[in-house]
Design a protein that fits this description.
about 260 residues; alpha/beta; Spore Coat Polysaccharide Biosynthesis Protein SpsA, Chain A; 9-stranded mixed sheet; two-stranded antiparallel ribbon; about 45% helix; about 25% strand; globular
Length: about 260
């Protein structure tokens, strides 16, 4: 069965070449969904023979569904530009596409943080369902997109790892932590969730203890500490922002 690879991009010139090189031998088609890059992303993608489609950014689920709709094939592999397939995973995918039997396939993602591979703290094994038949499912979710109707046991785990080059600097991580905290807060707000001072004070501490101590984040050295600290900081911001949103809404309600 032919395979279409969908890649989401925005100013990814430092990553996109590595990603495309890792899939060029197994992809029968490459579709890049770009959100208005101003660097060399589009030029690099086209040099690999990718079809590039431009669309304004809204969320990952919508962007991936858009890419799936543009693809020529029903079997889809979705990647982010900062990801690349290992040799073993490429071989596994090639075997799976030769005679696909499952509704979806998943693989382990190993993240590189500021030059170090992270194997603890809840970051590994990071299992992602990314290969699917577009006739049987689609992406959903505003913050972290998931395949609709694909449960934990519905996707077959393929041997090999997907290498995720997550952050090149701590500053990048801080910026993304703040952005995601705001998105999470708005999602919780839309679902009618509330935030108390207990959430704001206790949940970040619990998050740090779980990731750094109980999940052995300390074994990843300085990077493990920074990751756990920023995860706790993001938790604090999420509940603080949620509390702010509810207060602002309350003030706007007419008496």
């Amino acid at each position: 069965m032919n395979l279409s690879v969908i890649i989401i991009t925005f100013n990814e010139e430092r990553n996109i070449g590595r990603c495309l090189a890792s899939v060029k031998d197994i992809a029968d088609e490459i579709v890049v969904v770009d959100s208005g890059s101003t660097d060399a992303t589009e030029t690099i993608a086209q040099s690999f023979g990718a079809a590039v489609y431009k669309r304004p950014w809204d969320d990952f689920a919508s962007a991936r569904n858009f890419g799936s709709a543009k693809a020529r094939n029903d079997l889809i592999l979705t990647l982010d530009a900062d990801e690349a397939l290992s040799t073993e995973l490429r071989r596994s995918i090639a075997e799976a596409k030769a005679s696909p039997e499952a509704r979806a396939y998943k693989f382990i993602r190993l993240s590189n943080y500021c030059g170090r591979w992270i194997r603890h703290g809840g970051w590994y094994p990071d299992i992602k369902a990314r290969i699917y038949d577009r006739r049987k499912t689609k992406w959903q979710g505003l913050v972290h997109a998931e395949l609709a109707g694909i449960g934990r046991n519905d996707a077959v785990l393929l041997p090999g790892e997907c290498h995720h080059y997550s952050y090149y600097s701590i500053a990048e991580h801080v910026v993304k932590t703040k952005r995601y905290a705001d998105l999470y807060a708005r999602e919780l707000f839309d679902r009618g969730k509330k935030s108390s001072l207990l959430h704001i004070v206790c949940n970040p501490a619990v998050k740090f203890i779980r990731d750094y101590l109980l999940r052995f984040g300390f074994l990843d050295g300085r990077c493990g500490f920074v990751i756990a600290y920023l995860a706790a900081y993001g938790t604090f911001l999420k509940y603080a922002n949620l509390r702010r949103l509810r207060k602002e809404t309350h003030r706007k309600v007419p008496i």
